[in-house]
Amino acid sequence: MALLFLMVFGIPGPTPDLSSCRKLLDHAVEDKKTALKFYEQLKTAKKEGDPVLLGFRAMSEFLMCKHLINPFSRLAHFHKGKELLETAIQENNTHPELLFFRLSTQSNLPAVLKYNGNIEADKKALIAFLVNYNGKVQPDPVLYQRIKTYLLLNKYCSSAEKARIKAL
Hints:
0% strand; mainly alpha; 168 residues; single chain
């Protein structure tokens, strides 16, 4: 009986793999139930672990901000997400998925939060990533396409940058 109680109420499920994390992240943007599931599955990801997994945990924190009503809870999740994402980037400051997370977050936050200082640098690094892997065997073709699609929609990319990205 105690085991059943722990399984239902106390033990988070296994951490999803990269593909599952991406799917959950995409759906969590608009769906509160998915955001909660994403958060629950990633809230135990350790700071000392995989930086990309920590980045996904940070994104789960940011998404909680979007779906909560209480402004104090929203702010707490924002600060936690920011801390986790910056920690992940400090551990691997060239990983395109982490830079993509920061760019997409900073591009969509209100300016009043003052978390927008890396937009230009991250955008340039991600464009360079696309250029470097254009026509080559990519270690992660799904990530390549996600970044390319996002940059083509991003309001911070100039028309010249978008034309360059489109040509890749």
